[in-house]
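ugh ok fine here u go
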Amino acid sequence: MIRVGIIGSGGMGNVHARQYSKRSDVDVAFYDHNPGRAEGFRKSWGFEFLSGIDELIKRSDVVDVCLPTPAHHEIGLKVIAQGKALFMEKPVARTVKQAHELYQAAEKANVPFMPGQVVRFFPEYVQAQKAVASGKIGKPAAARASRGGGAPSGEGGWFMDHTKSGGVLLDLSIHDFDWLRWTLGEVKSLYSRTLGAATDMGPDHGLTTLTFDNGCVAHVEGTWMDPGGFRTTFELAGSGGLIQHDSRQNVPLQTTSTKTASEKSEGAPLPSYDGNLIELEDPYFLELDAFLTAVRTGSKPPVTGLDGLHAVSIAEAAIESSKTGKVVSPARAF
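structure:
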């Protein structure tokens, strides 16, 4: 039995609680500073409420941090100092400096540390990454990814204060930055523009062009300004074919091959994640299950603290570019 402690019972806390409730091999407790929210969480999931963060960390084998981004660094260091396995919702920290300190602390203490970069567990993105790695579309040349919907709020409207959330680049596009790095390799340089760059406040929309070490170029769009609801898309074009995804299509992943005399297009239905989630195929279940397995077996988490650090580095470079209007290279020497 693994003792799990959830810190934070807001949106992501409830998403994670739903996954733990499907398991019989975890004993879950939680803490939240808001009494009303904590009571609602307790009634929803039946988990034990503990009166403080220190008490929760002490009784836990794994600590799952589902707090606003500004709290990640301090709480993460506290968890690591107690030698407890740390699952940290993305982004792992507000800045590269903070993310680096978390990564170094976990490495020094030999503490399992995994960021919640859940896109790596969505089937469309997994299949596309595997297709690129296997050479199915030849040498990658160009990519495009988009993600977004309406503006989030959060307690006290913290998302709309970009000095806290990092705006759309750090809070949302970081998913695509991470997935593209996983799929295409390291980012050499990037150029970004965002609506919120001038004021660091309010709803945001960002466009980022990334150049990778392998020569591939990618365009990433992230928005908190789409009244049509949440949507994700991507395209990957290579010398041997094209992969396309649109979350609003009945067949969300389409592959076109140019390796034969005539083009061959393949598409297959994939599970829908619109709230009616398949119990053990939910990407959030797979993500947390992968971390618990790593903790139990002593193996390396499939997404590492270093991956989380690189993702923050790309997002921070994009934020810098959006403010300066210059091409920026993400920090890579860690």
